[in-house]
Amino acid sequence: MSDRETQPVERQLPTDEARDLLALVRDIAQREIAPTAAEEEDAGRFPREVFTLLSEAGLLGLPYDPEHGGGEQPYEVYLQVLEELAAARLTVGLGVSVHTLASYALATHGTKQQQVEHLPAMLGGGLLGAYCLSEPSSGSDAASLRTRAVRDGDGWVLSGTKAWITHGGIADFYTVMARTGADGPRGITAFLVPGDAEGLSAAPPEKKMGLKGSPTAQIHLDGVRVPDERRIGEEGQGFGIALSALDSGRLGIAACAIGVAQAALDQAVAYATERRQFGHPIADFQGLRFLLADMATQIEAGRALYLAAARLKDAGRPFAKQAAMAKLHCTDTAMRVTVDAVQVLGGYGYTADFPAERYLREAKVLQIVEGTNQIQRMVIARHLAGPESR
């Protein structure tokens, strides 16, 4: 393909430390992640060694307290790290976002003793996490989950099945939402379950159209016993913890979406400036130039939207509406931009010789995970007009 060097994204970062951090991430992405991304995705291989490297570099706990191994970086910076990782390989960027989501409950609602005991290994000790909310019969309607946790002496016994779990079967710990009380959102509690707990097993990974290197599987809990010390927050507080985590997680998905879109744009620009037809680079033709301009504009708008939401979060202000807007807009943008990138490459865009088709397949799932884009529209509308009348 083209020898044209891809220009780094121009970023507004709050500190010199953040600029150094992004330079480190970009170097890791270019040296350790991007060169093997296509081959490993095609083979369905999960790059555990990359996550070990990221953990050693302090990149798996960026938004959390340094007292427990976190990086104490604002979301404004953390999300741009995710974007760079996702641009190199979505399996890695999304994996870091999911790990951060899985660590959220303990980092924000755990007791001091729980945090001291578990967080250092979770944030910087090489462990990898998974987040277990969805079930086969409760996806968008998460409050109707059926996995149950029953008191047994000084502990709990968990039984049920979780679905669509990123890192399912390979995670070292699972943050599990289970029903401890009556039906509805107030009867749900959060638990930290070890990956090697007796009675915990994973189904074979789902066969997906994209993100083949990132395992997604059902998790079966068959009488899994956990001590009460692994209950996170109060009984019945789990659904509130889950929703709060998802507000932050949606920003992670938005950043990953912009990373994929940026990678697709870079591919399209490189191809268009090299490919010649009718004696000219195809980038000379106005129809294609306008298409590239629109792609770039949509990406910049998405980046600005997720960063605006992140700055609200960093300031301690409400950001749930803006997080839903960012997730909606950025993932829709990724879908549009990757479709257009395939079009720019023409027939070559439809082949696996170029990564454009992989970006397109990967972008689709981002409109679905952590709340479909239809759910995001519901969330935004509730902020604008109040709850639906039923």
Chain-wise SSE layout:
Elements: H1 16-43, H2 48-56, H3 75-88, H4 90-109, H5 112-124, E1 129-132, E2 148-152, E3 155-166, E4 173-179, E5 188-194, E6 200-202, E7 216-227, E8 231-232, H6 238-274, E9 276-277, E10 280-281, H7 286-314, H8 320-345, H9 356-366, H10 373-385
Parallel strand pairs: 1-4
Antiparallel strand pairs: 2-3, 3-7, 4-5, 5-8, 6-7, 9-10
Provide a descriptive summary of the structure in words:
- This protein is α+β, with helices and mostly antiparallel strands.
- Helix content is 51%, strand content 14%.
- It has helices at residues 16-43, 48-56, 75-88, 90-109, 112-124, 238-274, 286-314, 320-345, 356-366, 373-385, and strands spanning 129-132, 148-152, 155-166, 173-179, 188-194, 200-202, 216-227, 231-232, 276-277, 280-281.
- Strand 9 (276-277) and strand 10 (280-281) form a beta hairpin.
- Helix 3 packs antiparallel against helix 4 and helix 6 (238-274) packs parallel to helix 8 (320-345).
Strand content: 5-15%
**Helicity range:** 40-55%
Number of strands: 10
Mean pLDDT: 95
How many strands, what sense, and barrel or not for the largest sheet?
Answer: 4 strands, mixed
Structure annotation, total helices: 10
